[in-house]
Amino acid sequence: MSTFSRQDQLPSLPVPPLVETLEKYIDSASALLTPDEKKRIEKEAHDFQHSELGAQLQSALENRSKNHKNWVGKEFPRTRPPTLTQFILVSLEDWWYNVYTEIRDPLAPYVSFGALNTVYNCVNGGQISRAADVLYHWLSVWDKIRHGKWPVTSSRGVTWDMDQFHHLFSSNRTPHMPRDTIDRYFKTKEEGDTPCHVIVCCNGCFWKINILNEEEDTLKTSDELFNMLKFVKDNSSDESSGCVSKLTTSHRDVWTTNRDELLRVSAANMRHLKDVESSVLFMSLVPKNGGNDHQKLMTDALQDESWFVWQDKSVSITIYEDAQVMVQGDHSNIDAIVLLQVGDYAASRVRKELWHPQKTGSDQHFEFPERLIFELNEPLRHAISQAEVDFYKSKQLYRARPVHFFGYGNDLCRTAKLYTDTVVQLALQLAFLKTHGSFGPIYETASTRKYFHGRTETVRGCTQQFVRFAKALTEEKKTEKEDLQKLFDSAINAHNQLMADCMDGRGFDRHLLGLKQTLTIMNKGCGPKRAIPNFLKDDTWKRTGGDGNFLLSTSFIGYMDNEQPGTIGYVAAMRPDGYGCFYRIGKNRISVAVSDWVGSRSNIDAFCGNILWALDALSPFLTPAQKL
């Protein structure tokens, strides 16, 4: 079975009934609202459900879904808004990407994800050896995808969409105003020619490395890559102060202007930009040690030095002098789990010791890398200097911490017939309650990749059942153990049902996004302008998580192999006063990457400590009472 052979067999993401979506939203929001607030949004939602506008918007999505997968269609040019009769042709898929590409803040730390891998060890003098191995194994995945030999992902016997693996390599988020574009250059062998080069940045110097032996259509070996990378390092003077990659760290509008200036200055710049943006991936060889301090490495994974990463690329790999490895990616193009899966694959195969090819230097013939030299004028040099200043200011805005819990893991939870993911979700909310004395809206990623081009749906895990359990667990008044167990079971079951609904395309956040975006497009037409429904502009909408206002943004990013966490990745918290929590589950441990923003009411140290407390506090409830 080839990588993309099942794509046409995948079902379309369904459009849920409007009444079901509104009921689920009200039920979810009620956990965080007063009775009077709940009564108000019930009336507002009821009015919308029975309005002409509600029927019209729902009908548009349903009509589109009858004939097209995922309401999929091509987006209209920005200069030509669709008419009222055309608006149903716009795609949920386009809307989802636009949510990201309309963000104008710098990609790091606001959009990108960063990751380290605990499998990598430091090796003195091992930078080029490690770089060659890492590059080879990442490229082997590229080659498998190109030939359709990368295995199709499945979960519990269900085939998942593989489209994001098609997007992983040779993709670039290109800056434009008012919205960026995601440009994808990768093609399979069946589809035609594809870029076959990587860009390596060493000391601020850019090099283009061809990765195929073209006559045989085979990847260059680790030995060949070693010699090419050694040539790059030996021939790269320190030009980091004027490195063009610093420009990619800027506000997206600023980077748009500077990119236009780069293109204007010379035709060579145009060729070089095309080479960078179409490259399979971006790699940096950097003149500093990474070390083994995972807390420091986690922060550096998102922002280390200003020139290390070409922020627009979907895959950027940094190799340190001591052979430590960091990976960063643009979250707008792919979900983190795809990048992490490939990162784990490569890390499990890379040699952990210093090695050299049998033939090096003059004894070995190899294809020389091509140096790319950008032409800069004074405004661009000034822009690079300013970008660096802004980068180091933003680097002080957030924090990241690893949390490792060794009390139990997947083995105990499976014995208790519980999903460990659900237990962690309850623990994170308990930790927030203990830290701040209040409940908060929580976002958990649910994959919708069982559907054609599916990405994610939102599980809003702060349920009324959880609130009742948490209050009983933490209040001074003692609750009987048997009653607490029942409340725990109820909270677990409620969360499991939410997750199942979301993975089955019956969540409500993406549906509400589709309704809102359809309304926006209708209002660009010639007809009368329609007001946004009251429940979507009520102050309770954002207070319960609407428009991405989640105090806890969380995701389960995979199981561990041999109790080694492996790739630990994270993105910044969604709100300045919230936390990001991204966790991996082992047989007897749980590891969480936590992020927050500096200078707000968030308290990362207290919250991390309370995660350990919460996981421990839940251990008495892990009994055989549940059923998967």
Automatic annotation (TrEMBL):
Signal peptide extent: none
Keywords: Acyltransferase, Transferase
Nucleotide-binding keyword on record: no
Active-site residues (renumbered): H331 (proton acceptor)
Residue span, Choline/carnitine acyltransferase domain: 13-610
PROSITE patterns in the cross-refs: ACYLTRANSF_C_1
A Pfam family of this chain: Carn_acyltransf
GO CC terms, sorted: peroxisome
Keyword Transferase: yes
Highest taxon, organism lineage: Eukaryota
Entry's Gene Ontology molecular function annotations: carnitine O-octanoyltransferase activity
Family: Belongs to the carnitine/choline acetyltransferase family.
Protein name: Choline/carnitine acyltransferase domain-containing protein
